[in-house]
Amino acid sequence: MKLIHLALASILLAGCGGEEFQDLRDFVRDSGKDMRGKIPPPPEVKPYEPLAYNNDANLSDPFKPRKPNLRSGSRPGVNQPDMDRPKEALEEFPLEGIRMVGYLYQKRVGYAVVRAPDGKLHRVKAGNYIGMNFGLIKEVTDTEVVIKEMVQDSTGDWSERMSNLQLVE
Prior knowledge:
Largest sheet: 4 strands, antiparallel
CATH topology of the domain at 89-166: SH3 type barrels
Distance between the termini: 84 Å
Shape: flat
Number of helices: 2
Helix content: 10-25%
Strand order of the largest sheet: 4-5-6-7
CATH class of the domain at 89-166: Mainly Beta
Number of strands: 7
Strand content: 25-35%
């Protein structure tokens, strides 16, 4: 009897596996038949043409640093910071490590409360120096401190860079 049940179950299962999804199988098999990827040809490589360096051609020497031409009336070192003035406490820290944490207004003067990387709080106002790039505080508002820094480039010239500290909520 078990053999008959097993034979019937086999016949029923064989009938279910017919051509029901044959169209789907044909589509999957045929869908990629004519597809071939096309790769564009590589660009044409131009041969290197060396430049014959000749002093008579008024070319600048490639091995000497270039300095911008100074405007008439300007002197080199005009933007140089005062190296002889005494350093203030916040000039030993990089500006990136200093955070503005508060604002005070006393006797018509706005003060920023800043936290140094060592954890100490400092009260600063316009005219104080801050950061390691000779940063002069130009303005203190209730939300930021505006700083003019003096940075030296590779040729030894000094230039101004504006930075600011935003109030940390």
